[in-house]
Amino acid sequence: MEPSITTTRSRRLLRTSLALALVFACTLPATVLAKETEAEKAAKEQAAQEKLLQVFISEPYLELSTGPGRGYPVFHVVERDASVDVLYRRTDWFKVRDEQGVEGWARARDMRRAKLADGSPFVFPLGDRLGFTTHNWELGIGGGDYGGANLINAYGAYSLTDNMKVELTLSQFLGNSSNGYKAEVGITQVLFPEWRLSPFLELGTGVVYVEPRATIVLPEDRTDQTAYAGAGLRFYLTRRFFVRADYRWHTIFTSRDDNQELEEWKVLIACFF
Amino acid sequence: MESSNRLLLLAALAATVTLSGCSIFHRQKVEKPQTEEQAAAEEQAEDQDSTPPRVIEPNVARRKIKTPKIDTENWEIGIGAGFVSIEDFGTNPTYAGQLTYHVTEDFFFRADLGQSTAGKTSFETLNGDVELLTGDERRFTYYSLSLGYNFLPGEVYLGRDTAMNSGFYVLGGIGSVKFGGDNRLTLNFGAGYYVLTTDWLAIHLGVQDRVFDSDLLGETKVTNNIETLLSATVFF
User: Among all residues of chain A, which has the CA nearest to that of B96?
Assistant: First the structure.
């Protein structure tokens, strides 16, 4: 008995060292690559400079931080009337480069006070209440109940208008008798997008894949078409976040004689951008 | 005085009649196109006669600003490797991928997907030829959808000249695990540390506990499966 345990351990050791090697293989070349391409990147940026947006500071000064977060220290200020090139944006921070080539992160709130070359204000979407009414994308995760089974859910939506959204929902359900996945596409109609708490209606179709649990004897795996109609509420929390809860009435077009009808409810935490 | 006036009026009248007569006379005729020379001469004469309009043209060149689209880099994708301690089945190497969307500087959504292979329970090891699970059933595949919170932002210093941004985060969410021939709902929570080697490349070291009910060893119990992962991610 004893020797067999030792062999298992040594094999495990081998595997763990292999895994560690892989991690280094993954991370190290990446860092080296990062250094190597630094010069290349700078050259590329120079070439693309005409495409960068230039904004002018109209406040007494613009503070630049070392990182895109309020905890990172301010290390540089850009004076009034000087310009900065906007490199890119991450959450509510802009990476900018000033005339001397100093790069740093500027707060979106401060950038809102900057002006474009023609004197017009620099306007961009902020994650606020107004953004909750008008935005392009939504993303959310959550859970709920699908015909008695636990439901794990993720969704993405694209706004056609403030009211109407095209929605893709991916779910997994885990029940006592069966598990499965489903993917659905639908239209969501938000009735009062400008309200903080707004009801919405939804209609859609998709496919559901059901696999019976290993321990219970049931018919084999099956894939069926499904359709749903539903209604729900969405509530704006803060910044870019909102909560949505909805109820869906599903009809599954099974290959058996009768269609199956299922109820689903879920709660999701979602963001818009 | 009067006679000269009358004379002038008569002359004017005569001229009018003659001219209008001419026009009547020529009415039937198709108007001959002027020769180019004539036209040019007339134009020249006109130019000399009429002074250019004295309108003040504002000498302001309007700059047309076409705002370039600003690149947003809120997504982060990466792969990693580490270990997962599957309760009763030993600690085993695991490989995982992660996709993160940074909603604000504080909060993010993250999806994890990973796979490991469970080892043997001590019961199996001690009994030699007993196999609780088949090879396929030993595969431990998991995913989770989490909400995370960044805190303690800071910097790490490598030598005198290099400072890299870093930070901690906590996260928690739901997901599922496929193990022992069955899918199970999991709750996951954990914490991590990251260092941004550049603005777009981060190295993460994270620990997450994935909790689920398992009945593989007879009775149903809550199992804790702790995963340690070292990963590299790229912002895009």
Answer: A23
> How far apart are alpha carbons B27 and B30 in whole angstroms?
8
- Give alpha helix (H) positions in B78-121: none
- Positive or negative: CA dihedral B140, B143, B148, B151: positive
Q: Are B143 and B176 in contact (CB under 8 A)?
A: yes
Handedness of CA A174, B211, B110, B235 (dihedral sign): negative
Gap between the Cα atoms of B75 and B204, Å rounded: 15
Cβ of A141 and B90 within 8 Å? no
CA B229 to chain A, closest CA, distance in angstroms equals 9
CA B45 – CA B42 distance, rounded (Å): 5
Query: Which residues in chain B are closer than 8 Å to A70, comparing Cβ atoms?
Result: 105, 153
| CATH architecture of the domain with residue range B75-235 | Beta Barrel (2.40)
CA distances from B22 to A126, B12, B18, B94, B226 (A): 78, 15, 6, 108, 112
Contacts of B71 in chain A (CB under 8 A): 87-89
- Give CA–CA dist A107/A124, Å, rounded: 13
Give the position of tokens 């929605």. A167
- Closest to B110 (Cα-Cα) out of B141, B84, B74: B74
At B5 the pLDDT is 64
pLDDT band at A254 (very low <50, low <70, confident <90, very high): confident
Closest C-alpha to B180, from B210, B216, B211, B141: B216
Cβ atoms of B105 and B80 closer than 8 Å: no
Secondary structure of residue B6 in the 3-state scheme: helix
Which two tokens mark A151? Answer: 């439901």
Segments making up each domain of chain B, as ranges:
1-28, 75-235
Q: Do residues A33 and A66 make contact, with C-beta atoms less than 8 angstroms apart? A: no
Record the pTM: 0.76
Query: Phi and psi of A43, rounded to 5°?
Result: -65, -40
pLDDT band at B173 (very low <50, low <70, confident <90, very high): very high
ipTM over 0.85? The verdict is: no
d(CA B221, CA B212): 8
Domains and CATH numbers, chain A: 49-124 (2.30.30.40), 131-272 (2.40.160.20)
pLDDT at A44: 56
Token digits for A91? 């959450």
pLDDT 10s digits, B48-70: 556 667 777 777 776 666 777 88
Q: How far is A255 from chain B (nearest CA, A)?
A: 25
